[in-house]
């Protein structure tokens, strides 16, 4: 009897885990290229939900859907515009960015920077397709990072990406 209860518990746990994984995968959606949304960065951990993904959700009013590799020029620009992304803000679980980090940026801030000529490069495979409501794919492609293998998901060695607060 105890073995049956144990096996039933294990089976239910596995079923719940698989269901949760499938649900999370479905929620992530697609990237601007129409394929599965990839991780932007896990070191530092980015994403509105701090899960590494630039997926737009209903509660993300800032629309943090653009995976970008920030530059000194962009960090200076956004700081002058009132959004300091280089200073850590621990109460927001925000480590502060440095050039080369990848971070999920607000689509409006990225577009503003593009219009000013200081937009950081974009990781298309990790940029949520929903940003195409506000910015054209061709414009994103003009700022795209050449991707290959898992190079688009910076994790640790050279820094990662972070999210527009």
Topology:
Blueprint: H1 2-28, E1 41-43, E2 66-69, H2 72-80, E3 102-105, H3 107-115, E4 121-122, H4 137-142, E5 154-155
Parallel strand pairs: 1-5
Antiparallel strand pairs: 2-3, 2-4
Explain this structure:
The chain is of the alpha+beta class and 165 residues long. The chain has a single domain (30-147), classed as Protein of unknown function DUF2237 (Phenylalanyl-tRNA Synthetase, Chain B, domain 1). It is built from four helices and five strands; from the N terminus they run H-E-E-H-E-H-E-H-E. The protein has helices at residues 2-28, 72-80, 107-115, 137-142; strands at 41-43, 66-69, 102-105, 121-122, 154-155. Strands 3-2-4 form a three-stranded antiparallel β-sheet. A two-stranded parallel sheet has the order 1-5.
């Amino acid at each position: 009897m105890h073995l049956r209860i144990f096996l039933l518990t294990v089976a239910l746990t596995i079923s719940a885990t698989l269901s949760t994984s499938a649900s999370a995968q479905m929620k992530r959606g697609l990237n601007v290229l129409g394929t599965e949304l990839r991780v932007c960065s896990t070191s530092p951990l980015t994403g509105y939900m701090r899960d590494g993904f630039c997926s737009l959700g209903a509660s993300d009013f800032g629309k943090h859907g653009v995976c970008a590799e920030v530059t000194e020029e962009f960090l200076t620009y956004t700081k002058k515009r009132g959004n300091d992304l280089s200073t850590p803000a621990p109460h927001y679980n925000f480590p502060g960015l440095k050039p080369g980090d990848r971070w999920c940026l607000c689509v409006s801030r990225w577009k503003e920077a593009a219009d000013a000529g200081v937009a950081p490069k974009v990781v298309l495979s990790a940029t949520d397709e929903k940003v195409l409501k506000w910015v054209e794919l061709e414009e994103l492609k003009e700022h795209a990072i050449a991707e290959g293998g898992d190079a688009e998901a910076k994790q640790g060695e050279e820094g990662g990406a972070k999210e527009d607060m």
